[in-house]
Amino acid sequence: MGYALLACRVLLGLVLVASAGGKLRGGEAFRAFVEATRELGAPARRARSIAIAVVVGEIAAALSLAAPPNGFVGFALALPLLTAFTIAILGALRRGTNASCACFGASATPIGRRHVVRNAVLITVAGTGLALGAAGASNPTHLAGALTAVSCAVIGALVLISTDELAELFDLGSAPGPIGR
């Protein structure tokens, strides 16, 4: 159980750091996130405050995931945050808005079902980590196993962070370019 807990901590922590970092990368990235927050349903006059709260929540959760002994608080912070993101995305999809995903900074990619699936995976990781921490999972004892868990988590995090790029890569029907000329 310790290896799974370590993998959950690393995967979720990396995604949260990338998410907060992407939004704080520059003024344009943060403004895009504030606009996306408004488009996802936040009242216009509160969108900036909500966006700031989201970034603070992501940073707090990521730091808590790194804290000993098992990152339990980080999972407990991440779970409602991810659930709120998912509910906001589902609401925007239901309303048929053309909101963009600024999850990792400025992006012109409109939100879609893939974002719901990505968030469902992250919610599952957070829930699993929370359950493992509550069950008293301990830190891994073997270096090779820990390195394997961390490697798997890094790969999983990269896949989740690159959801939009991977979807675009495999969406051959709408991909512009010289292929098929």
TrEMBL record:
Parts of the chain that traverse the membrane = 72-93, 116-137, 143-161
Instruction: Name the GO cellular-component terms.
Output: membrane
Instruction: Enumerate the spans annotated as Methylamine utilisation protein MauE domain.
Output: 1-131
Per UniProt, subcellular location reads as:
Membrane
Tell me the organism.
Embleya scabrispora
Mind listing the UniProt keywords for this protein, alphabetically? Membrane, Transmembrane, Transmembrane helix
Membrane topology, as annotated, equals:
Multi-pass membrane protein
Q: Does Transmembrane helix show up as a keyword for this record?
A: yes
Classify the main location: membrane
**In Gene Ontology terms, what is a biological process of this protein?**
methylamine metabolic process
Q: Does the record carry Signal as a key word?
A: no
Supply the name of the protein.
Methylamine utilisation protein MauE domain-containing protein
Q: Which InterPro entries match?
A: Methylamine_util_MauE
